Amino acid sequence: MIVDLSDGGRLHIDDAPDARAVLLLGHGASGKIDGADLLALVSALPGEGITVVRHEQAWKVAGGPMRARPDQLDPGWQIAVRHLAEHHPYIPLLVGGHSAGARCACRGSANPELPPQSAVLALSFPLHPPGKPERSRVDELAGVPVPVTVVQGERDPFGGADELVAALPAGWFDEPQRRLVRMEGAGHDLVPLKRVMSRGDAMARVVGAALDLTRGLG
Questions:
Q1: What is the CATH number of domain 2-214?
Q2: With contact defined as beta carbons under 8 Å apart, do 48 and 14 qualify?
Q3: 129-140 burial code (b ≥16 CB/10 A, e <16)
Q4: Distance between the two ends of the chain, CA-based, in angstroms?
Q5: Domain range list for the chain
Q6: Rounded distance, CA 178 to CA 182, Å?
Q7: Whole-prediction pTM value?
Q8: Is 173 left (phi over 0), alpha (psi -120 to 50) or beta?
Q9: What is the pLDDT of residues 163-198, one digit of tens each?
């Protein structure tokens, strides 16, 4: 099902019968909503009682150029969060996304003007632009006030798993509500080198990370 939003954005909804949670996912700066990780979640989670909603930004719907700045992405994301909170008031709302979508989810989870969000699933959090480690966005991740799982490739040019750990305060991932899922041999798309891990195994790990995040949420 596709729902048109007031700003021209869209929600691509894959409903779960008797859903116990809703997971809202944002796309990256390229606007791709059919990446391997997002499609894996769409395929697997509704059968586990989790409705999956992919948010397509208005500029992508309109065929506009790539956008990645917070002021370009956050207003549309906030509309999507409010829409889902209104339409699913009695079950947990989880947020997440790939790359720029993960950044949106992190920022939104800390926004007191938005409805409460139960957890964040950050897929390929873009710690910095490629080759520019001085332009760190670590504060967006460090400021998440709810349980968070990060799935990060070890070869990600936007900041691999080890670089991400080093950028965060010491012991940040030691807290039980914070988890890092390392994707060996994978770049920013979370698809690993074939000699390291199969694509299917990698996507199963993404799905497992999402399912683990929903456990214990009420």
A1: 3.40.50.1820
A2: no
A3: eeeeeeeebbeb
A4: 26
A5: 2-214
A6: 13
A7: 0.95
A8: alpha
A9: 999 999 989 999 889 999 999 999 999 998 888 888
